[in-house]
Amino acid sequence: MGDATPGVFDIAVSLERNVKLDDPPKYVHLSWSENDAYHTMTVMWWTEFEESVGYVVYDTGPHNVTSEYAYMAEGSAHKVCYGACCFPGYWHEVGLTGLQPGTTYYFRVGGPGGWSREWKFRTLGLDENVKFVVGGDSRRPWGEGYELKIYPTSISNWPWARDWVTKSAASEDPGLRAVHRGPH
Question: Taking the CB of residue 57, how many other CB atoms lie within 10 A of it?
């Protein structure tokens, strides 16, 4: 068989395939990662696969398709872990900077795995102030409830933490109006 040594094979395989990744963004939410609520916004969401990348397209008017938006920003993806144990999926984070104060922005998040519906937010006007308190419940006690049993007044335990945060905020601002949603 030519020059080949018996029992030795050289195999070259080249595979090309296009795969449609079906991984639309979930749990889209906003925050600030910089101390500038007038000119910045941080957009976050979850996907099952890291390959879904992290893009935000945005503009000052609504659009029907992603290619119509005037601006696009790329971010990063990371896993959420506690020690060696990581939760499933990837959290994406994109920082938007250079925004105009007091302006409404329309946006979509996503990438190759799919795009979200259109959302909107408004940056604070330069003459506006805001105070807020945010709390949440992951509905998943770490370690099958271990923390709840050992540390019942831990800040991560809901509803104890909800009540503590509400009382603390009310002591700073007696006019505080607390809004609570959920079964707790």
Answer: 21
The 3 state secondary structure assigned to 41-77 is EEEEEEECCHHHCCEEEEECCCCCCHHHCCEEEECEE
Enter the tokens of residue 114.
């799919």
Q: How many folded domains does the chain comprise?
A: 2
| pLDDT exceeds cutoff 80 at 76 | yes
Which is it for strands 90-96 and 76-78: parallel, antiparallel or unpaired? antiparallel
pLDDT tens digits, residue range 16-74? 444 456 888 988 988 887 788 899 999 999 888 877 678 999 999 999 999 999 999 99
Judged against a pLDDT cut of 80, whether residue 149 lies above it is answered with: no
57 touches 66 (CB < 8 A): yes
For residue 144, give its domain range: 131-184
Q: Are residues 46 and 98 in the same domain?
A: yes
Helix (H, G, I), strand (E, B) or coil at 141: coil
pTM: predicted TM-score of the whole model, two decimal places: 0.65
Position 153, amino acid = T
Question: What are the tokens at 50?
Answer: 């890291």
Same domain, 85 and 151: no
Give me the residue label for tokens 């659009």.
63
Residue for token pair 């020059």:
3
